[in-house]
Amino acid sequence: MKRPWLALLLILPFLLVFGAFQLAPLTWIAFNSFDSSESGWGLGNYAEILGSPFYLQAIRFSLEISLWSSVCGLLIALVGAYSLTRVDSRLRGFVVAFTNMTSNFAGVPLAFAFIILLGINGCLTLALKQLGLIESFNLYTKGGLILIYTYFQIPLGVLLLFPAFEALKQDWRDAAALLGAGAWQYWRHIGLPVLSPALVGTFIILLANALGAYATVYALTVGNFNVVPVRIAALVSGDIYLEPNLAAALAMLLVAFMTLITLVHQWLLRRSRHVPS
Q: Which residues are the signal sequence here (predicted)?
């Protein structure tokens, strides 16, 4: 580009917004996570979290719900995204637009919808009981949260995976068929290796989406279910006592976990590029 200063000038507003709303809060959180009200500056907040069964349970529940909902959402989205590539273009456009709309259906409206459908006296719960298909179903447990989280993971997964399926060329399938490869051999040696970066990247995004979800679980359980976002909110704006520095340490543990997964993802991508085809 002949005028690099013009490109820098155009990107400057984005850099300012990114610094103000991303880097500055993250720096504040990281700095204050080492400031303990009891032991002073150091690792006191992290020691309290890692030594507390209550906070360890919150971390375990958050990881279990996020992992299971991300895996289930990814598998369903994988089938859905592949199906979109096999249908008529007009139907595909409608489904993609509908999926884009439903990907924003989360938080309090989603919790209310599930309470109406699958709550203790939900219409679908009562109907299944009348038919004798279930004896009881408790939406306000870990299994119920996994179900809700999986629901709002699916549209996002479809939107992220659909472009990856569009990159699979029909010529590759035809060439594999001419060489005697079956459907399983095609997906094992061609389809899945090509899709693997998109699959891993989508899984990481779904995992981050689930780990940071707060409004849905709070609206459903009124903050009575022990997950990390609820604990952070309680420490920042709770009615009993406020520990913002402890909340910062909890948030940094989530950041460290996501950073570790992202680094593993980047390592796998670099390794896949160096593997001879």
A: none
